[in-house]
Amino acid sequence: MNWIRYEHGFKSIHQGMAFTFIFFIWSFIYLQTWLAASFGAVFAMLAFQNVYFSKVGKGLIVNFKAKQKRILIDGEEELIMEFDNGIVPIWNGTLTLSIEDPVAPSTDNRKHYSGVYDLSVPFAVGSNKKVEIRIPLEGKKRGMSRVTRLILEVPHLFGDGSVNMELEDPISYQSLVYPRVTALGRELDSSPFKPGEVEQKTSLFTDALQMIGTRDYVPTDRFDQIHWTASAKMQKLQTKEFLPVSSQSVALILNTIEKDRGYMDFETKVERLVSYADYCMKHNIPYSVSINLRTFGATPYLQLPSGQGKVQFQKTMVMLAKISEKNAKMRYEDMLLNMESTGQLPQTIVLISHENDKIRAVAQKWSRQYAVIMDTVSEGSGNEWDNPVLKKTGTDSAFPSA
Q1: pLDDT tens-digit profile of 125-144?
Q2: How confident is the model at residue 95 (pLDDT cuts 50, 70, 90)?
Q3: What distance in Å separates the CA atoms of residue 301 and residue 293, rounded to the nearest whole number?
Q4: TM spans, by residue (predicted)?
Q5: 110 plus 217 within the same structural domain
Q6: What's the confidence (pLDDT) of residue 394?
């Protein structure tokens, strides 16, 4: 393991060794036995210190017990490091760990503004020994936290000076702090515009494999839908009735661009998306996630393909923990038009964004074919987020009024 060494105070040690050696020779020549012994002892002490600090820390290896931890806001974890020392013991050292601020020490209640915490703990390890250091951490805010720097400071035993060792190898440890999960507060109905597997009271489509009864035949019924056994019993033609179904898949589309640099606008939108994803997971609804952050590849924005269940929710939480308001963004309207050009939009679309004329125009255009919900929670409190684009009709799949 590679360490960068910074040595301070060795010049004074070398000067002290030179002076004490000269005085030792002078005392020896003039037969000053006790004075020579004193200077010899000081010289030996300085020489020992010089040799010790030139060798200390060589062969020191650090291992992080886990490469990645996942926690929620206000959740707790332990950063565990194991140090394997070489031949020379380390005494009275101080270990300084720099970690990004999505997590913080559990006992630290101070406010930090730099974005990085510097944690200092005492450190000592014997010759050819191992020592384990545990640092309790707590999730403070959504994001990804990395260990950016690891420094070991060993002070001189006598006098001023120290040896500082900074770990040169990359540190692979990181903590993912998931967004806060809150209840959606509404029900997300299925779409009436496409056949599927979700039962619905009124729908244009039926599941031919789920017959729920029969009724009297009318001239507009198809011949293959006649139930001949029931017709024989009733002595008149009976038509099969099937379960009305519709499609239920959702696209969650997040706008990361803040309106007028609103305070906590980005985090509010992220938490709102998590509420939708949590609702879809609990009701086993397939959903996809699209975010207008620049990426490389055929799709110019960040996208999570459609999926369902706990696996999809886990992927969503990991993706949301890694994004930042500092990432490069693309215009929200451009992302919407790009998604429309692919022709793969689901039947229910949730736009998590602030409103403006261009976004409203795209939403109104889509509402002719899809069930579109404009969630503007970031613009205010109350029920302003509950803003379905579709007008209330008999087939409207937007949120029902509470």
Answers
A1: 988 899 999 989 999 889 99
A2: very high
A3: 5
A4: 21-48
A5: no
A6: 36
Give the integer Cα–Cα distance in Å for 187 and 401: 10
Say yes or no to pLDDT of 399 above 80.
no
What span, in angstroms and rounded, lies between the C-alpha atoms of 384 and 354?
11
Query: Tell me: the pLDDT tens digits for 334-355?
Result: 999 888 888 778 888 899 988 8
DSSP string, 171-226: P--EEEEEPPP----S--PPPSSS--SEE-SS-SEEEEEEEEEEEE--TTS-GGGB
**How far is Cα 190 from Cα 187, in angstroms, rounded to an integer?**
10
243-272, pLDDT tens digit by residue? 565 567 889 999 988 766 555 788 889 999
CB 191 within 8 A of CB 132: no
How far apart CA 396 and CA 261 sit, in angstroms, is 34
Does one domain contain both 49 and 173?
no
Residue 348: CB atoms within 10 Å: 25
Q: Are 274 and 363 found together in one domain? A: yes
Please give the residue range of the domain that contains residue 141.
61-178
Q: Which helix (H) or strand (E) holds 240?
A: strand 238-246
Same domain, 360 and 298: yes
The candidate with the shortest Cα–Cα distance to 94, out of 127, 118, 129, 61, is 118
Rounded distance, CA 312 to CA 370, Å?
A: 23
Q: What average pLDDT does the structure give for the chain?
A: 79
Are 51 and 21 within 8 A, CB to CB? no
User: For position 121, which CATH number holds?
Assistant: 2.60.40.10
What is the three-class DSSP state of 235? coil
